[in-house]
Amino acid sequence: PQTSRLTQVLSRDSQIMKLKVGDAAPPFRLADTQGVIHATEDYRGGKLLLSFHRYAACPLCNLHIHELSAAYPFLDQHGLRILAVFMSPAERVAEQYRERDVPFPLVSDAAREVYDRYGVEYSVPGMLAAFVHPRAMRAFFSGFFPGRIDAATTTLPADFLIGPDLRIVSAHYSTNITQHMPLQTIREYAAGTV
Hints:
By secondary structure, this protein is α/β, with parallel strands linked by helices. The chain contains 7 helices and 7 strands; from the N terminus they run αβββαβαβαααββα. The N and C termini lie far apart (51 Å).
């Protein structure tokens, strides 16, 4: 018998394990918008922010990419690399960001395999919270408007700081779609003050 999509999602989410500090970073191998492959081992010996987003045209995701891009000179100077992951197909991510100068790789995980390995969750209430959140208004006033939806709108953002030994230094699981790891936490990790 065929199960409903909701039943599949709930079943999948009940089996997902959230990562904790000290856990080994689950392996990934993802292509960026230029076709370059990024794999877990590429980041051994350095510091990495692995940042999971929703779909390419998500206004809140676009705002977060904009904020990370603005902070990038400081983060890069302190040796922190960034890899931003989207559920949209690679061609949609490339199309969305073609006009912008993003200084770090944007990769696609349309099959959601890496999202699952990192325990990234869905939440309908977490999506609905954005309708009354000031950060959503900030995204709109910054010029980031909703576009074509090509992935699950209920996916919650998640961010992971990964150490040189490829272990989790910090895991941030959002409770609604307006949240990402605070930039101050990311800056402090890059500067070595955490």
